[in-house]
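Notes from hallway chat w/ T.B., transcribed later so I don't forget. T.B. wanted the structure written out for a chain they're using in a teaching module, and asked if we could keep both sequence and structure tokens in one place. Agreed to drop them here.
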Amino acid sequence: MKVAVLSPVAWRTPPRHYGPWEQVASNIAEGLIKSGVDVTLFATGDSITKGKLLSVCDTGYEEDRSQDAKVLECLHISNLMERAADFDIIHNNFDFLPLTYSGLIKTPVITTIHGFSSPAIIPVYKKYNRIGHYVSISNADRSPKLNYVATVYNGLDTKDFTFNDKPDDYLLYFGRIHPDKGTAAAVQIAQKSGRKLLIAGIIQDESYFGEKVAPQLNTQIEYIGPAGPEKRNELLGNAAALLHPINFNEPFGMSVAEAMLCGTPVIAFNRGSMPELICDKKTGFLVDNVDEAVEAVNRLDALNRLDCYNRAKAKFSSEKMVEDYLQLYKQILA
């Protein structure tokens, strides 16, 4: 079987720090290769893969802002679609734009919908309902207007994470600094519970960081910048808990699965996919506000970190994800 995996070109695949779609595309590609599949990855030229790599740019447009994002995306998608006949199946991890080619080629396209940037893009997905082969990354992130072939949870390479049963006592916020992700709420939770908080991630909203986060920084609340794969494992594994006080219905939440693979429980606002990722009172706590989160911090000792690890390994490993996708490929090709 020859599979083309289409990754975004905002960041490298896999990303150096931020880039969840690129990370999942990489995990799919490398997992398929391990399973003996012939994979061509369409990504930035600096991407890393054990398969074939085809690219139209040396680096992503978020890492080299001299490039025009839309131009790069058009060149990138067409680079694959003009070679569509070379593949048995195309796995699209690039949102809705590649669908506009799907009626013009014979190769089937399976699309993992990594979330909807807004309801405005749903008409494009709806137009290709009949041939789209849509996969949701959680049951919570489904549109009633679309036809889905399955839900496949994002899978992580479990070897990248180390189980730690003897963590430090700090709390961790790990993700982009943005109102949606609730960085300021994480600060409040740490302050009210009297615990140290480490904040790691790219600053995506400068004014939010400047107004809501930076004034609170001190020896207790510390911002340490973006964290790459090596630092990520250490930070997550040594944390007493990951704070995930999101202000939107998050489609998945990579850091939640990553934390649990280190044995670290997660305290999350009960929105979006969180009930699918977290077993309340077993692998973390689902809460509705800052005060409930503070109560949860005081109950962390009631949780068994091995339960966090075992659940994450069973549900969110790249092996499980790849196995699910291979079954879908066979089903579509049949």
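Follow-up for T.B.: Residues 126 and 156 are 30 Å apart (CA to CA). Might be a good example for the class.
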